[in-house]
């Protein structure tokens, strides 16, 4: 039992109870002659996710700033750009209704940065080196690390929706549409969190992840965030917004707020969000395997 007792404190000091538990499962049989059951994939994901969620809640800035900043921009744009309603062809709603979709996307970008930064911190601190010696699967590690990002996405999506309703925004699709809106926004945030994880696994530093944030934020401004695409008069801007997937993510959320049940907008919104999630998680999974092999 001495080898198990030695491995557990070492991992506990580096990565907490999650690492210690997996280390104990991997080393207990060697020292005692008894083979302990390897934790299931669900148990592994739950252990890492619990650690990720707890770390997220301990760092309140990761919760407060992603909530407050998009809401500040929403308040500013809702007032400063209200004259856009006078443009011929603009939807017959208040500009606040039109603009409420944007905070959900901006919040998702903050989720991407926080998820990637946390993952990069684990790489730099040596936590990955220790987990590589345990029976923990790479897929469980990746899914669990994104657990904190999903929690943040759930909280901020609900807050954005409630703030919008409190400021007079109506949800044209009703209560059911509000639930679909929350589901879509969380899926979008999960996809961007996967992108943040991919950048962290490829580059390995929090600074590199944060350096990508301005590039991600630009995609919001080069979309239909401020005006419907058919009302954009500058040709190159309209072309970029048309080919920008962020436009369809915004329009999917916006359709539930100002239109109702728009099948095409929802199909495109969920389609691009799902494609983003699948692609980023697939590449991040491959990068995770390479990272664990190198360590």
C-alpha end-to-end distance: 26 Å
Number of domains: 2
SSE pattern? HHHHHHHHHHHHHHH
* Mean pLDDT value: 81
Shape: elongated
What are the low-pLDDT stretches, counting only 5+ consecutive residues below 50? 1-34
β-sheet strand percentage: under 5%
Total helices: the number is 15
Estimated helix fraction: over 70%
Rg over alpha carbons: 22 Å
Describe it for me?
By secondary structure, the chain is mainly α. It has helices at residues 2-15, 17-32, 41-58, 61-80, 95-99, 101-125, 127-131, 138-145, 147-166, 174-203, 206-211, 213-221, 235-243, 245-258, 263-294. Helix 6 runs antiparallel to helix 12 and helix 9 packs antiparallel against helix 10. It is elongated, with a radius of gyration of 22 Å. Mean pLDDT is 81; it is low at 1-34.
Key descriptive features of the protein:
single chain; 295 residues; mainly alpha; 78% helix; elongated; disordered N terminus
Show the helix and strand layout:
Blueprint lengths: L1 H14 L1 H16 L8 H18 L2 H20 L14 H5 L1 H25 L1 H5 L6 H8 L1 H20 L7 H30 L2 H6 L1 H9 L13 H9 L1 H14 L4 H32 L1
Quick rundown:
With 295 residues, this protein is mostly helical. Helix content is 78%, strand content 0%. Helix 4 (61-80) runs antiparallel to helix 6 and helix 6 (101-125) runs parallel beside helix 10.
């Amino acid at each position: 039992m001495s080898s198990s007792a030695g491995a557990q404190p070492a991992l506990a000091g580096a990565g907490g109870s999650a690492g210690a538990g997996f280390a104990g499962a991997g080393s207990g049989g060697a020292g005692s002659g008894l083979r302990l059951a390897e934790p299931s994939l669900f148990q592994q994901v739950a252990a890492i996710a619990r650690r990720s969620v707890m770390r997220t809640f301990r760092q309140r800035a990761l919760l407060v700033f992603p909530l407050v900043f998009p809401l500040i921009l929403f308040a500013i744009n809702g007032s400063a750009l209200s004259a856009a309603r006078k443009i011929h062809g603009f939807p017959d709603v208040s500009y606040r209704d039109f603009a409420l979709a944007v905070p959900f996307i901006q919040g998702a970008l903050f989720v991407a940065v926080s998820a990637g930064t946390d993952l990069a911190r684990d790489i730099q601190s040596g936590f990955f080196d220790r987990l590589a010696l345990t029976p923990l699967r790479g897929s469980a590690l990746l899914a669990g690390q994104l657990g904190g990002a999903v929690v943040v996405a759930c909280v901020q999506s609900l807050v954005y929706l409630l703030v919008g309703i409190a400021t007079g925004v109506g949800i044209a699709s009703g209560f059911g549409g509000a639930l679909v809106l929350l589901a879509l926004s969380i899926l979008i945030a999960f996809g961007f969190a996967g992108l943040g994880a991919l950048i962290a696994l490829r580059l390995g530093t929090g600074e590199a992840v944060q350096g990508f944030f301005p590039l991600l934020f630009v995609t919001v401004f080069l979309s239909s965030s401020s005006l419907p695409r058919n009302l954009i008069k500058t040709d190159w801007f309209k072309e970029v917004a048309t080919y920008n997937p962020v436009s369809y993510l915004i329009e999917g959320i916006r359709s539930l707020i100002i239109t109702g049940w728009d099948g095409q907008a929802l199909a495109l919104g969920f389609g691009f969000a799902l494609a983003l999630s699948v692609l980023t998680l697939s590449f991040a999974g491959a990068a995770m395997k390479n990272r664990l092999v190198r360590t």
